[in-house]
Amino acid sequence: MFGYFIRRALDAFSARYDYDVGYMRAIHAASPRAFMRFARVAALANHREAAPKEAWYAAKLVGALAEDCGPCTQLVVNMAREAKIDHTQIAAVLRRDADAMTADTALGFRFAEAVAHGLSGADDAREAVRALWGENGLIDLTFALQIGRMFPMVKNGLGFARECRRVHVGDHPVDVVRRAA
To answer: How far is CA 21 from the centre of its chain?
Structure first.
């Protein structure tokens, strides 16, 4: 009976975000226990206490971009749009165009890029985040970045990352820049 509700929840998630949840279904079919543990970790993907949502979504997008070639990044874009993040900010993160970002978006992006790609500015970005949003803001962005990476990595590890697709912000395709310059 519980499996029925999980399948319905996955159907609803898939329809809401136009996202293939086949890998989640496979986890559930093979090991309901593993799926429940995965779902608990997935709940961490929604944790945000202090960081502004623009910075938080910038970190989530950088995480998805670090591991993904389209579908998981598109999922985060769709979630950011649903959260009313300005489409120009989403596109700026996807293009890695810091000059087009607001201060909050740029700091979330700069922090996430530095951490995800081992760049030399990680300590400075970390301290800037801490100075503006405290330890809780730093935790928010760190979780957003890491959990943003987890989904595409799990999907790939299970052999379900077979589709690359062009990312759109609304009806507009974006030329995504996949790696830090």
So the answer is: 15
CA distances from 149 to 103, 126, 131 (A): 23, 19, 25
Integer Cα distance of 6 and 36 in angstroms: 10
pTM: 0.91
The answer to whether residues 105 and 55 touch, using CB atoms and an 8 Å cutoff, is: yes
pLDDT in tens, the chain (181 residues): 678 899 999 999 999 998 999 999 999 999 999 999 999 988 888 999 999 999 999 999 999 999 877 889 999 999 999 999 999 999 999 999 999 999 999 999 999 999 999 999 999 999 999 999 999 999 999 999 999 899 999 999 999 988 788 899 988 988 888 775 5
SS3 168: strand
Q: Strand locations in the chain, DSSP E?
A: 168-169, 172-173
- In DSSP terms, 172 is beta-bridged to 169
Backbone torsions φ then ψ of 136, nearest 5 degrees:
-65, -40
Residue 5, token pair as written in the block:
């509700």
What Å distances lie between residue 45 and 60, 120, 128, 150, 180, CA to CA? 9, 26, 23, 10, 23
